[in-house]
Structure of site-specific DNA-methyltransferase (cytosine-N(4)-specific):
Amino acid sequence: MAFSVQQKSPSYLHIEGNIPLDLPNGSFISITRQTPLKIYSLGFQPAKSIPEIPRWFLQKYGTNKPFIVLEPFAGSGTTLIESLRQQSSVYWLDYHPLSRLICRVKTTKFSPEDLLENTSKIIQSAYHHKNAPETVKFANKDFWFQAAVQEGLEILKAYISQSPEKNQPLLWIAFASTVRKTSNMNDGMLLAARRANFEKIPERSREDVFEYFQGYVNRAIEAVQEWQTVCPDFEKAQEIPSQDARDLAGNWTCDAIVTSPPYINAIDYVWASKFELHWLEMVRDDKARLELYSQEIGTERIPKDQYKKQGKTGNSLLDSLIEDIYTGKKYQASKGQNELRARVVYQYFVDMKTHFLQSSSHLKPGGYYCFSIGDISKICGVEIPVALILKEMAESAGLREIFHFNLLLKNRKLNLPRNVDWAGTIKHDQVIILKKSL
């Protein structure tokens, strides 16, 4: 079965600030964003979702209070923040340890005075500390971190661990930013990969590490101070025990699910946060870090004996596209890559189908599922209508589409290696709202 994407130039509605509630169904929009709260940018998370989408949904569909939202791919916490701003309750989860830390910080009330005093003591002690411990080990650590930087990070890590427990989440966020900044990655790099055009990093001292940490703590405190003047009730946010969007265990229900699922074949979040995972001891070792991939929807870490088999989903369009990738109809990648990418696509949609079935079981009758996803992904030269196929899978789980619109993606540049001949870029996010029958 052939599938082709019609390349038409849509007519865009140009919007300043918030998305209007009377937006026509099927619109193509371009947003000029207003300056957001600092809390949105706190913490490392590639390709953050924008708050305008959950804000629009909650103002249009979530006006009857109490209103309970589920965010199954919490990421950097955008939906959590918007739910709290709209006085809605929100359940949330994420498989990624760093995302969970970020979301906990954004849904916790802190004392800026206590944090400043705590940080001052940490810095003073760190400057007088002589011998640094060595507790963190992972592959190529010495290539990516200078000896003095490692010492500075180890010293900070030790003192943060001794800090009052109530302050530690925010201090760890600042520490995570310090880890990334003081590594030998060039500014703007997303993945730790050696490149031909690698720029030399200046020599850094322990003191440089301490100064960066102080700066990141100050920024984090500014962000939470501003946020705490806006957010009336942090107790409305609740992390649920499950860390897997394919297994939403528990006896609870929600009025809406508002999320941006992982993009297929896009960003390797485990690799991107490799340094933070190890330095914050969120994983024990390299093996434990690699085990995180088993919890990731859309993972590219698939055993060879699995990806040598061409998977069948039962969706005729999707299965034909998977076959085109597997056989290299559009692009013959290096050895084994066509088979691997075909299996990645297969597993992504199988996992998302499981997620939709789980989600539907927790949605109240008449509840909503709102998701934002890249409309089309190009894999080994084959264009996959991701949004369309996900909508069909959600409908097979008992939901029906009631509204959709398309958002022009303006900032699509990611500093990572990519073969544009067979990967391509995503031009639009499609926002789809589905409803469960009464």
